[in-house]
Amino acid sequence: MNLLVVILGGGCGAGLRYLSVQGISAVFKPSFPLGTLAVNAAGALIIGFLFGAFEIRAVPAQFRLFLITGFLGGYTTFSSYSLETVRLFMSGSISAALANMALNNLLCLGFTFLGLGLSQKVVPHV
What we know:
mainly alpha; globular
């Protein structure tokens, strides 16, 4: 049953990732992989918040599996980020590749801390 919960969450997350990246690319038409950065940052914020909230409020294990392992595992795009960074390096866009590395790592770590902090402020302690 746990595997099914993770698969369902992962499919939902992957679908939302696809729509998010396509939407951001259509609006901003960036030469930089902005959609992947936005998805990774949002995922970091959400996982930090959920982790903190789930530490405050007990939730069923399958709900955690669905949201954190499944949904956010499918939604965030670290493998896409890695490939896009390598492609930037291979195309000679060294500064863009380095910026992509720095922004994804620093922004996502910062957003995870932010999400965790937000959960401590907005989720009522019992």
